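name: query_chain
kind: protein
chains: 1
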Amino acid sequence: MGGVGGTGGSGGAKGSAGTSGTGGASGTGGSAAVVASYAGGFVGSNVGTIRYASSTNAVTGTAGAGGAGGTGVAAQTNLAGLAGGSGGAAGILYIGGVAGNNTLAIVDSYHTTGAITGTAGAGGAAGAGGAGGAWSGGTQGAAGTAIVGGIVYA
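structure:
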């Protein structure tokens, strides 16, 4: 699973005649720790030829989840809250009865009996927007963007 994005730093408070500083942007959640996973009844990933292989295994796999976006920064007085960070991307799962991935040929090989089940990883959740500063027009920052789940190729 990807890491959670960091929350940006708060802006500096204004002096007697100045303006408060705007806070820093919050981070995007990390991508899935493993970008792509491979699962197969005989081999997960192969760079050669698979010949005369058979599989009766049940094959299951789950793609990695993306990390959540960081929470938006709460604003100083008279400023709007900052937007939350976007979620991180989920991983991709390649799954098959004989091989999840193969770069050459699969010859006279087959899969029977066992089920092949792949589950997409969840995309990272959006970070919540930061609270508005203490004033009548203080507004909450917008939430970040949630990211769609991973892809399963079966």
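note: The chain has no helices and eleven strands.
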